[in-house]
């Protein structure tokens, strides 16, 4: 295929389709009509002699050739964007841009209300998309430019990433108001005897804390009674309010959940681990003016909330 015969705008459609797996979302993202996206796909298929994307129950799935083309096309477009956009200033009040953030559902509850209120006041044209994936896949997506920023506890990222500490965090126990055995304070015996709910989000490293809890139970010679294991915090406040379960959550999540139900938080009866909540980004975005603005805004809003 002769490169001079290929409209580079088609590659923008290709790149968006790789990320969204949807002609509808691609059309919205690129401000095109859906018929224009379909026409672009038709031209791409003709140029490469391959379907590139095929319909599946999970969306428009890339073919082997599309997956092979993805890294060089994405990298090339990234270089072009860097060359074109680098000299331009980022003016928040006038900016029209979408940022993709990787964070857990806890992170959404803690970060998003304050961040979105600030964007509405300072940068109304800036949009946020949160991404649900695994830490390993998030690293690859950030290197490809598909995720702009991660927020949370991430200790296993490889080289090529920058990290900035936002605040120090620790865990508390959360129970319903009027719990039959936990009243003025949470004793060690009450914690050991209680039925527990365990929350393990996909993002972050909550397992570090759970390992510490299990170690404390082992030292006490007791078996922990885990009545429920959860992967999401949705409905957690209602669940704890309607039961005698004890769940351990980060302090900021505890505060947010208390506001939604009749719950109480208690200091743990043992020295649990503390950890840093940070924002991380890939080297490819380090000097991007818009990215620098978003990072500085997040730092301004959340740094020092220890």
Automatic annotation (TrEMBL):
One of its GO terms (molecular function) is DNA binding. Pfam families: HTH_1, LysR_substrate. InterPro entries: LysR-type_TF, LysR_HTH_N, LysR_subst-bd, WH-like_DNA-bd_sf, WH_DNA-bd_sf. Keywords: DNA-binding, Transcription, Transcription regulation. Residues 6-63 form the HTH lysR-type domain. CDD domains: PBP2_DntR_NahR_LinR_like. PANTHER family: HTH-TYPE TRANSCRIPTIONAL REGULATOR LEUO-RELATED, TRANSCRIPTIONAL REGULATORY PROTEIN. Belongs to the LysR transcriptional regulatory family. This is LysR family transcriptional regulator. It comes from Pandoraea communis.
